[in-house]
Amino acid sequence: MSPISFAPDTGVWLLSTPRTSYALRVDETGAPCHVAWGPRLTLEEAGRLAAAPPAVAASSFEGRPGVGEELPVDGGTRYGPPSLQARFEDGSRAFEWQPAGHDVREDGGEGELTLSFRDRRYPLRVELHYRVRDDTDVIERWTVVRNLGDQPVTLLRADSAAWTLPPLRDYRLGHVTGQWSAESRLHRDRLAHGETVLTSRRGITSHHANPWVMLDSGEATEDHGRVWSAALAWSGSWRVTVQRTPDGRAGFTGGLGQDGTTVPLAPGEEFTAPPFAGLCTDGGFGAASRAWHAYVLAHVLPHAREDAPVLYNSWEATGFDVDEVGQKALAERAAALGVELYVVDDGWFGARRSDHAGLGDWTPAADRFPDGLAPLVRAVHGLGMRFGLWVEPEMVNPDSDLYRRHPDWVLHFAGRTRSELRNQLVLNFARDEVADWAYAWLTRLVGDHGIDFLKWDMNRAFSEAGWPGRQDGTDRLGPQYVRNLYGVLDRLRADHPALRIESCSGGGGRVDLGILARTDQAWASDNTDAADRMWIQHGYGQVYPARTMGAWVTDVPNQLTGRTVPLRFRFHVAMAGALGIGGDLTRWSEEELRDGADLVAEYKRVRHLVQHGRLDRLAPPAEDAVSAVQYTAQDASETLLLAYRRVGRHGSPRPPVLLRGLTPSARYRDASTGAVYDSTVLAEYGLVPDLPPGDWSSTTTHLIREA
C-alpha cells in the first residue's frame, strides 16, 4: 500500500504510517484542512469522515473554527493563534489560499507530499510538506514560504506546522520545565481553555522548556491510552502555542522565533521552517517515548548504532587547573577503571585561568602544555582511550585577543551596553565570517591533533541580539545563527568522519532534534547529583533516547547540592544513560577504584540494552518508594532492570515490579545469580528487586532468555 494516497472525488489526502493515519483535504475556500489523525483508516473511510457534518454547528458570531486547519493564517474570520502572518509592502496583511498544485515522491519506504498554494492577490507562495516512513509513526511536517514578487514581504509569524486533535472529553498537556541544573522536570496538567504558550526567547533551546508536547484526554497512563505528541527540530528560540477552544477542540502550532521578531523575505527569497514532527500512539506515554526513541535512533542521530563509549571528564577533578602532567596522571587512573574516552575540559587554552579571560583564543596554553596538546593526545591514545576536548566556539571573553581584534563580532546594538553573563559575550554566528573562523580553527585543531571527540559547550543565552550594519539584522540573526551553527558542525563532521560530538549548553540548554541530527549525545544537566538526576533523566527520556543522554558519576559531597550518596547508587543512576565519570580519581580510595572498575565492566556488559533497547518506565522516581526502569533487547533475548530506593523505612511494603516486553512463555536466567524465572510470572506477578537495606539503595538485574 502506498504511504500517500488521494481521492479525487472527496479531495482527501491520506498519509499512512505502520499504525496510524493522517488525513487532510483542501476545502471549498482553498484552505488546507485537517480531517483525522489516529488509528489506521482506508481512503474511503477518511472520505466519509471528511464529509460528516461538524459535531457543533457553527455560530454566525464565531467565524472559522479556532482549530482544524493545517496552517492557520492571519486573515478572514480567523481569530485563533495564526501559524502564518504576512505583511506586504503596501501595508496589507493576511493570506488567502489558492491551490497551486501538488507533488508526491516515494522512494522505498519513504513518501513525501507537497501541497502548493499562493495568495490570491500577492506573489507569495506557500508549500506544506509532509514526510512519512514505513518504519515509524512519526510524521515530519514543515512549511516553505517563497516571495515571488519584486517587493519585500515580512512574515510576522512563520510556523512549521499546526496539529489538530480530535474532539475529546478533556485534554491534558504534558511538557517539561526547569532551569540551569534542574532541567526536564515533567508536568502533566489539565489543558486550560484559551492559549498556552511554551517558548524560549534565549536564542537556544533553553533549560527552561523543551520544544515538545504530549497531549491526551487526561486518562492515559504509562501503558494505556491514546497520546498525541510533537517535537520541533530547532536549536534556537522557538514557540509552541497550544489552544483549547470553547467548542471542545484542541490543537497546537509551533516553529522557530519568538514574539517581537519577524522573518524578512526579500524579492525572490525563500524561507524554510524547521521540521515539526508528530506522532499518535494507543500505547500510553511509554509507547510514545519508545516511538520517539526509535525514530531518533533510526532517522536523526548520525551514528546511532555505535555504542557510546564510557568517558572520563576532567572538570570536577581539576577545574581550570589543567596541565599536561596532571592530565596524564588522571588519564592513567581513568584507563585503569576501564574508561574508553578521556575528555579534557575547560582551561587548556590561551589565558584561561578562570572564567574571566581567554575564551576565543583557542591555542594550547604554552605554560601548561609546553609542547602543545600532542604529547597528551599520544599518551591517552597509548593508554587505549580516545581523546576528547572541551570547546566553546560561540563565546568570547572581553578579556581575550579575539575580542580586542574583533569587538564587532559579538551580538550587540550600537550604543547599547553589552551585557555579560559568566563574564562572556556571544559571538554572532549569523555572520559568515564568524562561522568560517570557527570552522577553520576547529577543523585545524581536530586534524592536527587527532582529536576524537568534542564537548561543544554554549554557556549563556543571547542578549542585545543585534547585527548592526545589516538591514533587518535583528530579525535575520536568530534563524541564520542556527543555520550557520549547523553548517559548521556539518562541515566539521564531513572533514573528520571519525569525530564524535557532544552537545552541551550549561548542561541541558540545547537538546532538541535539530542539534541531535549533528551530534552524538547531549549533556543532560550540569547537576550530577544522582538523586536529582533521577527526575532529570525521567523527563529527558520522554522524547530523547538513553543513547544520547550523557550521565556522569562524580564525587561526594556533590559540588552543587552537598548531598552524599553511595558510589554504587551514583553508578546505577548514571548507567541509565551514556555512562561517564567526572570525579577526582586521584582522591578515590583503592576500594572505590576497584568498585568503580567493576561497575564500569558491568555497564559495558549491558550498555547495548540501555543504548539500543526498549525503555519501560516501570515505576517513576519517588522519595520513599522503589523506582525502576527496564531496558530490553529488540528481540527480547535479554533485559536489564535498574531499581532504586532513596529512603529505606522499616516495615514499608515491597511491591513487586511487573516487567514488560518479554517473550511470552519463555524462561529468563539471572546472569548474576543463575536464578530462572518464567516470563509470565515476571510480567503478571512481578519481581521484587533485591535492594540492600538502608537509604540510597540500588540494584541491577540482568536477565537472559534461555534457549
Automatic annotation (TrEMBL):
EC numbers for this chain: 3.2.1.22
* Hydrolase recorded as keyword: yes
Q: Name one GO molecular function term.
A: alpha-galactosidase activity
Which residues are substrate-binding? W180, D345, D346, R422, K455, W456, D457, M458, N459, C504, D526
State the source organism's domain of life: Bacteria
All copies of domain Glycosyl hydrolase family 36 N-terminal, residue ranges: 30-265
What name is this protein filed under?
Alpha-galactosidase
Protein source organism: Streptomyces fagopyri
